[in-house]
Amino acid sequence: MPHDGFTSRIPFAHALSAARVVPLLTLCLLLSCRPALADEIVVATYEGVINPVAAEYLHDALTFAQSAGAQALILKLDTPGGLDTSMRLMIKDMTGSSIPVIVFVAPSGGRAASAGVFITMAAHVAAMAPGTNIGAAHPVAMGGGEMDNTMKEKVENDSVAYIKSIATQRGRNASWAEDAVRKSLSATEQEALKLKLIDVIAENIPALLKYLQGRTIAVPHGSVTFSRETATLHEFPMGTRLELLKILSDPNIAYLLMSIGTIGIMAELYSPGAILPGIIGAISLILAFYSLQSLPVNYAGALLVILGTVFLLLEISVTSYGVLALGGLTAMTLGGLLLIKSDAPFLQVSVSFLLPTVITVGVLVGIVVWMAIKSGHRRPVTGTEGMVGLIGIAKTDLNPRGQITVHGEIWEAISHTPIRQGEAAEVLAVEGLTVQVAPAHK
To answer: What is the pLDDT of residues 184-238, one digit of tens each?
Structure first.
């Protein structure tokens, strides 16, 4: 639709013709750019934590399905739960959709836990595959941090009211839904069907399509009746950008990026002009900030990670006999454990990932310190100090003064022991442009 500011600047006749032409052009553009999917059902597959990436993926898939005229959208879901804000965005898109949204908890072994319970309950059609489960929707498991009793009660009551309204709207078991929040109840697919939490158990999507044939589903402003013939499927991939953002939303990756970013920036500050550590550090920190903004972050943990990397880098230049390194490794470990303010295991930094990362960083810093110490005890190879110990040839007799040739250079030399021309002489010391020498031992 054109803006008022645009139409007010053209004559009425032209505006009228434009009003007729623009919709036609728009329709032609849509038909030419996007295939008609009237006999198809769009399938979106999401596995992992419910976060901003999940919300954006569902929104994109639903927008595509609606604009392409598809019969419905199937969301194949396997999730341990996730963030309350992202979950609510997904449910808003589902309840406001002009086509049915079917949530299919699959494959076998998958689950719809925590936030996944809300999303499944909000579906126009809820289905589960054999060997799946649903439940444990307590709000703490949806990404909440530490709360006092009053706040816990408020959040719990809000979650209960929300899931009961969703269950009532879809004609599902509101009483069990409340217990799933208050008591963290769970149910298998068979129990879920008996409790009227879901509509059907389907081994796969073709079996689900058979169930849908000929059924009428109520949607806002009307209803949709599925064809009695088997619909074809149109997969909607997540795309490279969202796949990358999904990886970055992992708390383990967030911890790793923060560690690398801090080390890179500090290394650049210690050695200005190195450039590469600074570039890697800056990029890693920016990506870490993106990761952390989608997670319930404990800033004390983040500061401990940064402090730990600073201590490790100080160990390279300050003689602390390992105290700074030990403090740095301890701070990084504690920071990783405290980084995410949540009791949900899937939102925390995994100990099996944390410890190898900290140990690897510690080993790398230890290698750098060892190389620095080793180079400090190594004999100089450049400058005047690097000449000590070299063997030259007497260019003239030395008794005690004369000249010698070292590395093709002629030096004034002093020897307390006479040395004849052509004999080998070892450099003992360098004083200005004069070297002290002695006969070389054969």
So the answer is: 999 999 999 999 999 999 999 999 999 999 999 999 888 999 988 878 899 999 9
Catalytic residue among 17, 92, 108, 154: 154
ω into 251 cis (within 30 of 0):
no
Is 212:102 a contact under the CB 8 Å cutoff?
yes
CA distance 393 to 383: 20
Asked if 214 and 224 touch (Cβ cutoff 8 Å), the reply is no
CA 306 to chain centre: 18
Cβ neighbour number for residue 37 with a 10 Å cutoff: 19
- Global pTM reads 0.70
Of these residues, 86, 114, 249, 284, which one is catalytic?
Answer: 114
Q: Which residues contact 403 (CB under 8 A, 6 or more apart)?
A: 394, 395, 396, 410, 411, 412, 413
* Torsion-angle region of 277 (φ positive above 0: left; ψ -120 to 50: alpha; else: beta): alpha
Helix axes 52-67, 84-95, angle to 10 degrees: 10
Indicate if 375 belongs to the active site.
no
For residue 154, indicate whether it is catalytic: yes
